[in-house]
Amino acid sequence: VSFFPGLAMKFVKPALSIDEQIDLLRRRGLRLDDPDAARHTLAHISYYRLRAYWQPLEAAQIDHSDRIFRPGARFEDVVAHYVFDQRLKLLLMDAIERVEIALRARWGHQLAMRYGSHAYLDGDMFSCQARHAKCVRLLREEVARSHEPFVRDYAQTFSDPDLPPILIISEVLTFGQLS
Q1: What does the alpha-carbon distance between residue 161 and residue 147 come to, in Å, rounded to a whole number?
Q2: What are the phi and psi torsion angles at 7 (to 5°)?
């Protein structure tokens, strides 16, 4: 299956060693001030992952010849952009996690206070019985898959109801199920 219908081209490029990758980048005009550091980087972060970060440093191409870099393009700048992107992703993931945890806590607490700790098991509270049955089945699967200590503690301490209260359930649901 081709991702690009109508484009039928066979891939024939050989795999390149790290040193061959460095030579190729240099031939294309990328400056590498510290070849040992570049070797280390390419060994731990693949050529193709870094490629996304050096594409903005490439000169515009009219034909499909080898890409060349704009004058002054440096490997160290590529790595700096990669590191910046990774740190930004970590900051965003941290912020998203904090929002998600707060949302789970508020959601579970509000439902427990308003409808009771196990109200989600009462099919009469739902407008569609089939959907409720499916949701409870999915909850059972998530609880069975969970390795969280609070889920195990509930199962070892209580037998009725067999599923934990909503405050625990809110921690094991996927974010999609929570929504």
Answers
A1: 19
A2: -105, 105
